[in-house]
Amino acid sequence: MAIHNDFGKKAEDLAVEYLLKNGYKILVRNFRFQKAEIDIIAEKDGIVAIVEVKARSTDAFMLPQEAVTKTKIRSIVSTANHYLEEFNKQHEVRFDIMSVLPDDKGNLMIEHITDAFQAFDAN
Questions:
Q1: Domain span at residue 14?
Q2: Buried b / exposed e along 3-24 (16+ C-beta atoms within 10 A)
Q3: Model confidence pLDDT, tens digit, residues 73-106
Q4: Residue 12's domain is classified under what CATH number?
Q5: PANTHER family in the record, alphabetically (predicted)?
Q6: SS3 20
Q7: Model pTM greater than 0.85?
């Protein structure tokens, strides 16, 4: 596996660990529909959180969450709709981003941005 893939997997694992510690139930990881994928689908307090994990080795060019473009949002929303229909979920839905960056000592730091975007942001 390429180094960037290892880093991305490590970031997703860290995000799952963070969510579990904060009372979320992980419903599914890496849910795929057509060519799109949702990194994590979790639930807490009756809300389904659709979570996009973005990791970077540096923030010199942009913050990880800035890489979530309108095209990516459309893809996430479409895939989330498919998941909700397939599993007959009637819950409130929220779209989150988890940003992962190393600190100055190389430790991975995570920022959970709740309600990072709305489905209508895809338009």
A1: 3-122
A2: eeeebbeebbebbbebbeeeeb
A3: 999 999 999 999 998 888 899 999 999 988 888 8
A4: 3.40.1350.10
A5: UPF0102 PROTEIN YRAN
A6: helix
A7: yes
